[in-house]
Structures are given as C-alpha cells and as structure tokens.
Amino acid sequence: MNPFAPRIEISLSQIRENTQILSDLYLEKGISLMGVTKAVLGEPSIAKAMIEGGVQLIADSRIENILKMKNAGISIPFVLLRTPLSQAESIVENVDISLNTEIETIKRLSHHAKTQNKTHQVIIMVELGDLREGVMLCDLSQFIRETLSLPNIKIIGIGCNLACYGGIKPDDKNMRELSEQVDLLENEFQIDLEIISGGNSANYEWFKSSQNVGRVNNLRLGESILLGCETVGRKAIPGLHRSAFQLVAEVIESKKKPSLPSGEICQDAFGNVSSFLDRGIRKRAIIALGRQDVPVSSLKSIDPLRMIGSSSDHIILDGESHNLEVGDEVRFSLDYGGLLAVMTSPFVMKQFTDCNSQKAI
Ligand SMILES: *Cc1c(COP(=O)(O)O)cnc(C)c1O
Q: Is 360's pLDDT higher than 50?
C-alpha cells in the first residue's frame, strides 16, 4: 500500500547541499547568509539542514516558528524578519535580532529589554524603492539618533528589502546607495555597523554581475535555498537542486465522462460561471488535493497532465494522455506560494525522504 497522501516529500540532503553551494558562492565576495525558514513553517529539521549547509543565522517572520525551532533544540541566533509590535515582550525574550522601521516599536523593545535585563539587537531597514518596509532615507539619520538614545538596544546593522512589493530589482545603484548610507551613518555617529543585509533571493543576479558588492556583507535567503532559483526571473541557479520538495497526491476516481456537464449551468463552488468545450466522452481522473491545500496555479506537474478543474478538495485531470487508475499517485513540484501553502496545511503530511522519518505537523 502507498504511504499517506497528500504528502510533501522533502529531501533534507538537497536542502543542505543547496545551502552549502550558496554559502560558498556568496562568501567569495564576503557575504554571509541568513537561512529563511518562513516558507516551511519553521520546520526544525529544515533549519538544521540550512545550518549544516553553512548559514550563521536563522531568520523567520513569525515568532511561533522561531519558538518551534528553539524548542527543538536549535541554538543558533535567530532573526525576526517582520517588524514586531504587540509581540515585543516575547521577541525580546526569545529572539536575538529583529528588523525594525518604527521608533515606537523600538521603544517597546527597549522597555522590555530593560525589564528583562537584556540587550536586544536591531537591524534598521531602509526604504530603497520597493515600498514595503523601510525608513525613508531623509529620516534615517534622525531615526538612528533616536534609536541610539534608547537603553538596552543595540543597532547591529542596516538592511533593505527589494523585489517584494514593488518588484524592484536589486542593482548596483540601490546597493551602492545602501553602502553609502552605511558610511554616512558610521561617520556621523561613530558606530560600527556589523551586518549590512542587502536583500533576499532576488539579489543573485546583482551579486553575480557586480564587481564590487560594497559594504553589503549579508543576504537573507529562503527561496534560493529551498527551490534552487533566484527570484527576479525565477531562473535556476547552476548546481542547485530544484525539487527538494515534491507534492504527492492520490487518484481517488478514474472514469470516462462527457466533457460537457448536463443540466442548467449556474455558479460553481467559487462563484464563477464556467463554459465548457464539447470534446466528447473523455477519460478523467480526480486527485484528492484541492484549493484548501494549495493554490492550483502553484502546481507544476512532473508528468504532462492537464488540469481541467479544481474545487476545495478535488482536482480533476484530463485522462487521455495517461492511464491513471484509482490508487495511482501524481507528483507535482511547487512554486514559492505553493510551498508556503502546503507546508502550512494541516492536511498534507510532511515526509523526509532521506532519513526515513515521517511526521505530520
Ligand atoms: C521572506 C523574506 C526574505 C527571504 O526572501 P526569499 O525570496 O525567500 O529569499 C528576506 N527578507 C525578508 C525581510 C523577508 O520577509
């Protein structure tokens, strides 16, 4: 009998090798890496594979994921990627470094750090055109001045995030801007900024083409490590594994049916009114996987299969180009959105293929 489906098969050795190759590559120009675990719900064994592959820090956007990794015994420093607010107390207690853009939040962190008799480290994020999080350049100096005046807070670095909201490409111009800001701030305030975090998986092309990476000495990588691609054009990075994650679903019905529904056509389960092409009687298969598990557009079939429809719990495949029978399994690779959804779904079993351990999260 087949193992439980749907399941996501995860190769930890491929994730470790991807991390190793990227760590070596970026280190050639003096750039260290944070391994980003948010797309895999802070799965501790994936964080461990990243650490074995050479990352010095683990970064996640959710405190819950960080707690999960800490509880699993991971003792490397953690970075919170999303600026905190109401969770400030727990952040100070559990996280070493957080990314920040609001002085009110840093005041809260400072307050809790004082109460807990700790120093909390912050990376100040700078807005360089993508228009997600970041302090505007014209406000940066004042922002740093105020932050420096707060007790129990240490500015460990500055950073920026591109290619997320605005889809702005990291290039020599915005990266040089970041380096210039580092020099200006270090001079003005007589401080040393240790971490200059220039971005994420979208920084690959800039890195490859740049003769001089300036002061940038860190990147925060999730997708490149997990899926083996950069994220400006989703191109494969040479030498990396691209299918460390495979989603497997099972066929629960296989029958010949007309291609035109019969009866009066109304809205479907999601409020759309569909139109159909009469292609005669066709073989078709239903797999036990649906929109509650994954956005269907995120699925890339490893076999040439055509999806003809989907609802919350079912995906219908055209059956002419293959011979799927009940109980057969169908494999998909995933894009980033698909990985995020599948890893978050309580319905998909997580299976680690190269250490024989199975685990339902
Ligand atoms: C998610 C995230 C990353 C990682 O992005 P990838 O494209 O997966 O490499 C880096 N930095 C921040 C602030 C993030 O939120």
A: no
CA of 137 to the centre of ligand 1 (A): 21
Which pTM value belongs to this model?
0.94
Please report, as a single letter, which amino acid is at residue 281: I
CATH superfamily for 31-227 is: Alanine racemase (3.20.20.10)
Alpha-carbon gap, residue 59 to 68, rounded angstroms: 13
Q: Which of 29, 38, 70, 107 is catalytic?
A: 38
Query: At 123, which helix (H) or strand (E)?
Result: strand 120-125
Q: What is the pLDDT of residues 275-328, one digit of tens each?
A: 888 888 989 999 999 999 999 999 988 777 888 889 999 999 998 777 899 999
Domain ranges of the chain: 31-227, 245-360
Contact 140, 126 (CB under 8 A): yes
For 284-299, b/e burial (b = at least 16 CB within 10 A) is bbbbbbbbebbebebb
What integer pLDDT is reported at residue 355 of this predicted model? 66
Q: Decide if 31-227 and 245-360 have a common fold.
A: no
Instruction: Could you please state the CATH topology (level 3) that the domain comprising 245-360 is classified under.
Output: Lyase, Ornithine Decarboxylase; Chain A, domain 1 (2.40.37)
Tell me what pLDDT residue 358 has: 47
Ligand 1 mean position, distance from CA 310 (Å): 30
- The ligand 1 site (C-beta within 6 Å) comprises 36, 38, 61, 81, 161, 200-201, 220-224, 231
Ligand 1, residue 61: give the atom nearest the CA. Answer: 15
Q: Count CB-CB contacts under 10 A for residue 144.
A: 21
265 pLDDT band (50/70/90 cuts)? confident
Query: How far, in Å, is the centroid of ligand 1 from the Cα of 211?
Result: 24
Using CA positions, which residue lies closest to atom 13 of ligand 1? 81
Distance 138 CA to ligand 1 centre (A): 25
Query: What SS3 class is residue 283?
Result: strand
Atom of ligand 1 nearest to the CA of 36: 4
pLDDT in tens, 228-253: 999 999 999 999 999 999 999 999 99
User: Catalytic: 38?
Assistant: yes
